[in-house]
């Protein structure tokens, strides 16, 4: 994995198959597709609502104005086909300890089971290590066995901490030392 910076000092991570970089406004359609594919067990505020929000235009505006899309949740682009297939990165969701960001990833269904989530996550872990972080954490729904497998593959272990939601399932908390 290599780490580079664009002229604007934005993070760019590269693996053998992937480029992780800031989102471009034109890629809001990919974000919208991610929203439409989410499991019905995902909380309503993370899915397309009855009025069709967020729209592509709203997601475009979010990419323009929200720093998380340039420094935290990086677009995952396949180098061979130059298409964006999801995101992976670090966020400060306020649920973990100070100085310990959360690893987050989400990929389009059509690219599941090809090792991209693991590959992207390992690149982000290396970036976090080189940035001085000592520990990361991640949350995952108990029913999301695929994401639980990815987290285990990249060295996260489940803790005793859980948040039970009678409608959506139990959020499991995982950690990993770097």
Beta-strand content bin? 25-35%
Mean pLDDT: 91
Write down the secondary-structure element order.
Answer: EEEHHHEEEHEHEE
Unreliable residue runs: 1-8
Largest beta sheet: strand ordering: 1-2-3-4-5-6
Note the overall shape. Answer: globular
Residue share in helix? 25-40%
Q: Secondary-structure blueprint of this entry?
A:
Blueprint: E1 2-5, E2 11-14, E3 18-21, H1 28-37, H2 56-65, H3 68-71, E4 73-78, E5 84-91, E6 102-107, H4 116-130, E7 135-141, H5 145-153, E8 157-165, E9 169-177
Antiparallel strand pairs: 1-2, 2-3, 3-4, 4-5, 5-6, 7-9, 8-9
How would you sum up this structure, described in words?
This protein is of the alpha+beta class and 178 residues long. The protein contains five helices and nine strands. The chain has helices at 28-37, 56-65, 68-71, 116-130, 145-153; strands at 2-5, 11-14, 18-21, 73-78, 84-91, 102-107, 135-141, 157-165, 169-177. A six-stranded antiparallel beta sheet has the order 1-2-3-4-5-6, with helices on both faces. Helix 1 (28-37) crosses helix 2. The longest helix has 15 residues, at 116-130. The protein starts with a strand and ends with a strand.
Tell me briefly what this model is:
With 178 residues, this protein is of the alpha+beta class. Helices cover 27% and strands 32% of the residues.
